[in-house]
Design goal:
Layout (H helix, E strand, L loop, with lengths): L1 H30 L6 H20 L1 H12 L6 H18 L3 H24 L2 H19 L10 H7 L5 H23 L15 H15 L8 E3 L5 E5 L2 E6 L6 H19 L16 H15 L3 H14 L1 H4 L4 H7 L17 H17 L7 H13 L26 H20 L3 H5 L5 H10 L9 H9 L6 H14 L3
Parallel strand pairs: 1-3
Antiparallel strand pairs: 2-3
Helix pairs in contact: 1-2, 1-3, 3-4, 5-6, 8-15, 8-21, 9-10, 10-11, 11-17, 15-16, 15-17, 17-21
The structure holds zinc ion (ZN).
């Protein structure tokens, strides 16, 4: 068995090397590559991805997994987890027939291309036939994994393994029931004055300020760096090289600052994984939801808290004296936590964001179940936005055509992680506070070692050794509920808006 394990790990390391090389090319494409490099770069990345796929789907990998699974109970815990994670990834690649994959690849390119033109033209009719196919292909892919409880389950598994549609639906229904009235109560009050954030803030100073904070959070610049891009992201080439990217708007201080804090949370998770997992499927965050819980912890629970700004606001004022010296801490704190009913998910505030996500999740389920037709989708979208947020998009541009997710070839499984992440972030944070009640005071001193240490010990180090449901059970000692998240929102926004 030792021989099989060594051979499997050797193969996995090579696959990981190819994927990391691809990630470097992709990072470069999004940061420094001149426009002239575009065509060749796409080809180079496709070549690497094909090589990696060929290596992974090699029948020999399947035989190694078969052999190791027969004796999985005799394997050390880490190795058993490695075999299980590898099996999941392997099955995702081999269970969907190559002809179907080829059809979806072709379809994806056309669906996306059509969407890029249909959105500005407000032409839902143009993308409707593609969307219809995307739903049909998603159903076909799901059927390659028989035995599911809900047709969305296999699609959810790709990003949030083990989080069943039924579980997510129940959590979201609870959350929606609490959030809708809370948003109503908050938006009935006078909205916060956000003008202090919309002055001129030079980019170099914004950047230096953000980097100073994330260094203090514990993001390790000896094993990472930050560069500029259009759409911020975090990426990993190895546990020793986890990078983030950001963008700055010189007329919107919150944009670059909070996206830097957000991406540093994703990156610290990856930097904190046990180095012994390097080069295996265990060496990264375990699910989209858990990953998002880590970015949201640092962006929102820490970075939008009063304690945090009590410490950092004087430093921010010293950095931008002309802009902020006459703005009080209270005004600034309200501005970075302002709430308003809006149409666009990516611009939504902390309180309304999950409503946007849950609308999409529910519509996806209805499409996959066949209880909602593509033809009725735009109206269903408007109806939910009116019911949940009290707004009606003037056109489909800011309605059903808004997000790229549904126009990338398949429908399903792409949204739930955002809100699961918010729910988890509060549940984990509650646990950390129970273990270390001094954490909020430390944040008020600009000290983050206790929180960062707790996250490393309880979440980061395990990488993908535990699935999300297993990790939740380990950390919380119980399944996930919305209670800590709702308590947090009610306490924070209740105080801000004197509810
Ligand atoms: Zn994120």
């Amino acid at each position: 068995m030792e021989r099989e394990l060594v051979e499997l790990k050797t193969r996995l390391q090579e696959i990981s090397d190819l994927n990391s090389a691809s990630a470097v090319l992709s990072w470069d494409q999004a940061t420094y590559m001149p426009p002239g490099g575009a065509a060749a770069r796409s080809r180079q990345m496709a070549t690497l991805s094909q090589l990696s796929q060929e290596k992974f789907t090699d029948a020999a990998v399947g035989h190694l997994l078969d052999a190791l699974e027969k004796q999985i109970d005799a394997l050390p815990e880490d190795d058993a987890a490695l075999v299980r994670a590898t099996r999941r990834n392997y099955d995702r690649l081999v269970k969907v027939p190559p002809q179907l994959v080829a059809k979806i690849t072709n379809h994806s390119a056309m669906a996306y291309q059509t969407w890029t033109q249909a959105r500005p033209a407000n032409d839902f009719a143009a993308v409707a036939p593609y969307l219809e196919k995307s739903v049909a292909y998603a159903q076909e892919v799901a059927d390659c994994f028989p035995g599911y409880d809900h047709i969305a389950d296999p699609l959810i598994d790709w990003s949030d393994y083990g989080m069943k549609a039924a579980t997510v639906k129940a959590l979201f229904a609870d959350l929606r029931a609490q959030l809708v009235p809370l948003v109503e109560a908050v938006t009935a009050q006078e909205s916060a004055d956000t003008s202090c954030l919309h002055q001129f803030f030079p980019q170099d100073k914004q950047r230096a300020f953000g980097e100073k904070i994330i260094r203090q959070f514990g993001y390790d610049f000896d094993r990472g760096r930050q560069d500029l891009t259009h759409h911020p992201f975090a990426t990993k080439f190895s546990i020793g090289d986890v990078r983030i990217t950001t963008r700055f708007d010189e007329h919107n201080l919150g944009d670059g600052l909070f996206s830097t804090l957000h991406e540093s949370g994703h990156a610290m998770y990856e930097q904190g994984v046990d180095p012994g997992y390097e080069g295996t499927p265990l060496d990264g965050g375990t699910s989209a939801g858990v990953h998002e819980s880590q970015s949201r912890t640092w962006e929102n629970l820490v970075g939008r808290s009063r304690a945090f700004w009590t410490h950092y606001y004087p430093e921010l004022q010293a950095t931008f004296p002309e802009q902020l010296n006459t703005v009080s801490l209270d005004t600034f704190y309200r501005a970075v936590n302002s709430v308003k009913r809006s149409l666009i998910r990516v611009d939504a505030d902390q309180l309304t964001y999950d409503l946007h996500v849950m609308i999409r999740f529910d519509l996806e389920l209805a499409l996959l179940e066949g209880s909602l037709s593509i033809q009725d989708l735009p109206e269903a979208w408007h109806a939910r936005y009116e019911a949940d947020l009290g707004v009606h998009a003037p056109s489909d541009i800011d309605g059903v055509l808004q997000d790229v997710h549904w126009y990338g070839g398949l429908v399903g499984g792409a949204f739930q992680g955002y809100t699961l992440g918010n729910i988890m972030s509060a549940a984990f944070y509650d646990r950390a506070l129970a273990d270390h009640p001094t954490i909020p005071d430390e944040i008020g001193q600009g000290e983050f070692g206790t929180l960062h240490g707790w996250l490393k010990e309880n979440i980061y180090q395990y990488g993908s050794r535990y699935t999300a449901p297993e990790l939740i059970e380990r950390v919380l000692g119980a399944p996930l509920t919305i209670d800590p998240y709702i308590a947090y929102l009610k306490s924070k926004f209740g105080e801000l808006y004197a509810l």
